[in-house]
Write the structure tokens for this entry.
Amino acid sequence: MLELANTFHRSLDRLTNSEQSAAKAVVFDYMADPSRPGLSLHRVDKARDRGFWTIRVNRDLRIVVFKQSQKSVFCYVGHHDDAYSWAEGRRFEVHPVTGAAQLVEFVEIVREEIRVVTREAPKPGILANEDPAYLLSLGIPESYLQLVRDVDDDGLLDLLPRLPEEAQESLMALATGERPEARPVILASPVADPFAHPDAQRRFWVASDEEAVAQALEKPWAEWLVFLHPSQRAAVERNFNGPARISGSAGTGKSVVAMHRAAHLARESQAGRILLTTFSKTLSARLSEGMDTLLGPASEARQRIEVVHLHAYAHGHVSRLAPLAIVDERTLDKLISESRGDLDTAISDVFLRAEWDAVIDFWGVTSFDEYRIVPRVGRGKALTSRARRQLWDVFDNVRRQLNARKLHTFGEICDRLRERIETEGLRPFRHVVVDEAQDLGPRELKLVAALAPPGPRSLVFAGDVGQRIFRWPFSWLAAGIDVRGRAQRLKVNYRTSTRNQS
């Protein structure tokens, strides 16, 4: 049996047309007779996985194939040294929990190449508190568990492409506020085919005959993000007559829908720019890659879509002279501590900082009258009007110190840009699509509402308000976003759907 891995497709695409033709011819020759002498099969002696062999295409090109019993998996094609290096740095594994076949790069190679936080006082990775058993259940290779728990936000962005698809999706969901369900442990079976697992079928394509091979080699690999379940397509193409929200639990494809929605709008509209944005820098980079895949990086439609996380967009456009300075965490903590004066010692600096983040800066409170009535949902501890009066003296002094030093929070940056847009009346985008919208606060939502003119299809938010980790509960209507009657919930978990469902 012959199978084609997605890594083979990607490496094939990097070759010249003549090199591709030569490599495809060898695939057909192997399928007709894998034992023919002209193929020059040679085991990769330095590979730690003894299943890797190479097939000679010409004097320089080699195909890497994984051979196991009657199965042959075409994994990679490249120039001689490149092909051997690729094989020597990887191995095939059967995941101990999911039972899916995975092609895994040796973790020590990846650790050397990605950015892992190294400081005198190392800051814990963004997933440091996750239980290794839970991470393992999500399809993450066992050898990568510690590295996954070590990386920071930037390191995770570098790490994701080096992992199997199901691990990428699960880690992205964790990093952006969702919590995928742990997968049940599958007892090992000597007769089970790890390549038949739904996760494995997304990266290994079974070639049943020469016609199927020819079809597979003539078109790009169908990346997971391009697949749309019919329920998702309805959300992508629906003509909402105002701001709309598409929600769903982890695994229902909200990010997929957001990308396809932006691509759909770009194809349909002949003019006007489109913003695809989110709260996370890591996710925005993934969304940008997705748009390149869906539309082609050089297409006219792709050029009209700007993909950037919202705070970066606001910071880059708030001032025509120079970007405004953002207060850092340490300075803000110091200002709060210095501003408390003779405040009761029972009220800790930690509480004051949390109140600043969750209430003062969250809502953009600028006076005691506002603070006296602002909702404090999710804060737990109720405050009397007298207590709020005392706390406001602290926060008001922090605000004055920030102004004196010309320092700003991202919430203030969002307000300033929104106010300028509203004053000038010039909307920078025709459509705005927001992914992981549950992690935006009221100041960010108000800015989003100002970025495109009111009207049908102008604003679409994808997310799940029940999966908020970065922000606190609040009414969207209070933030000026009315999605009543224009909400759609995704119910099909596409991560466990096979490709033939489309």
Summary: The chain has a mean pLDDT of 85. The first strand starts at residue 2 and ends at 5.
